[in-house]
Amino acid sequence: MTSQRPCPADDFDIYYDLAQCTDHYDTFPVNKADENQHYLQGVTGLRNLGNTCYMNAVLQSLCSISPLVEYFLSGKYITALQKDCSKVATAFAYVMTDMWLGDSDCVSPEIFRSALGSLHPAFMKKTQQDAQEFLIYVLNELHQSLKKYHQRRSYENGSVPRCCRKMIASEFSIITRLFEGQLSYSITCLKCETCTYRNEVFTVLSLPIPSEYQCSLQDCLQCFFQQDTLTWNNQLHCSFCETNQETAVRASISKAPKIMIFHLKRFDILGTMKRKLRTDIHYPLSNLDLSPYVCPIFRKHPKYNLFAVVNHFGDLDGGHYTAFCKNSGTQAWFSFDDSRVSEIPDTSVQTATAYLLFYSCQPFPIPTEKRKS
User: Fold this and answer.
1) What is the 3-state secondary structure (H, E, C) of 167-188?
2) CA distance to 93, 95, 136, 147, per residue, from 90 (Å)
3) How many CA atoms lie within 13 A of 131 on its CB side?
4) DSSP conformation class of 9
5) Which pLDDT belongs to residue 26?
6) Closest CA to 308 of 268, 361, 265, 261
7) What is the sign of the dihedral through the CA atoms of 277, 280, 286 and 288?
8) Rounded to whole angstroms, how far apart are CA atoms 53 and 59?
9) What is the pLDDT of residues 60-107, one digit of tens each?
10) Which of 47, 51, 108, 295 has the most CB atoms lying inside 10 A of its own CB?
11) For 193, left (φ over 0), alpha (ψ -120 to 50), or beta?
């Protein structure tokens, strides 16, 4: 059990405290004595186009994934482009190039916003959107733009436990290689005790928050992966009993992605009431152990390291998003608040405003592309 303490003050107070804190650190360029020095790669602000802080925070987080960035900077994406839906991927490549190789302290994401907005008009409106929903749309559209088809023979024979078997995907892309994981649900009928399995792919794992005051990321994970009993109107149909029955359901990870993204479900709905959970969730910056939730046969990279955080300040109907990202070149953490960029100490990365957490099972190399001339 975690200790409880009074709920933290309005997180806008936290936001202003953080803003004052970052004033003690340099903004970029780092060496102010040399006005001609290039800006640090991958450390570039983004202009707010009118309530687009949610977009900026997500783009900064994706920009900190150097294998993804290098895929676009190297031009590899061009050969994978689907002719009928290449706008989003091409625009994403332009933005990543400006953010990683440009010599400006701030660039505009307008080209990417227009490309995505042509498919999803809500993102063209000057209204606040949810960063998690935006992230899922971005990953999906990039996958659709870059997907390839393949056929491969299943290795899933009797030697692989049914609960650990992977789905055979017919499509793959840089997005599936980096972000796609798979959950396996064991479903047990409580009457006949027959157990069946259902697989489900994911790119973002939405975690419940078990406390209103304070808890850890491991508490959230344990809550998500604990066994759940479905009764009354939630009963599932048992093909053996041929009727709806009370059922025990438990999830496990049968395929752990290279990039694990956690969505902390801070926006809660109780009947007609909506509220934001301001729970102070402790999350580790390194060595997050996922082995208790991963099928034993696939525990290749059970420990993950944090490299980006999307923060949300305010309430359900409004607020502000920022991002903390770790630069793969300097290994330093930076705060991205639209056009404002500041270096921050490791101790400032842990906050009560975290909304999206990005973890990697392997350290990122530095993209090898040379800077623009």
Assistant:
1) CCCCEECHHHHHHCEEEEEEEE
2) 5, 9, 18, 14
3) 35
4) P
5) 46
6) 261
7) negative
8) 10
9) 999 999 999 999 999 999 999 987 778 999 999 999 999 988 778 999
10) 295
11) left
What are the helix (H) ranges across 23-86?
53-63, 66-73, 76-80
Question: Poorest-confidence range of 150-154, 168-172, 269-273, 299-303?
Answer: 150-154
Task: Return the pLDDT at 21.
Answer: 47
Segment holding 237, helix H or strand E: strand 236-238
Cα(88)–Cα(94) distance, rounded to whole angstroms? 10
The predicted structure's pLDDT at residue 150: 65
**Single-letter amino acid code for the residue at 338:** D
pLDDT of 310 above 90: yes
Token pair recorded at residue 15: 């936001």
Strand-pair partners of 183: 200, 253
CB-based contact 239:181 (threshold 8 Å): no
pLDDT tens per residue, range 211-236 = 889 999 999 999 999 998 888 888 88
Q: What is the largest CA-CA distance in the chain?
A: 77
**In the predicted model, what is the mean pLDDT of the chain?**
84
In the numeric block, the tokens 């300040």 are attached to 313
Tokens representing 198?
A: 């259902």
Taking the complete model, does pTM exceed 0.90, yes or no?
A: no
CB-neighbour burial class of residue 149 (10 A; exposed 0-12, middle 13-18, buried 19+): exposed
Phi then psi for residue 46, to 5 deg, are -125, 135
Mean pLDDT score, 283-303 = 83
Residue 189 bridge partners (DSSP): 247
280: left (phi over 0), alpha (psi -120 to 50) or beta: beta
Residue 6 has pLDDT above 60, yes or no: no
pLDDT above 60: residue 308: yes
Paired strand residues for 267 = 276
Q: Across the strands, what pairs with 259?
A: 360
Element (H, E) at 106: strand 106-107
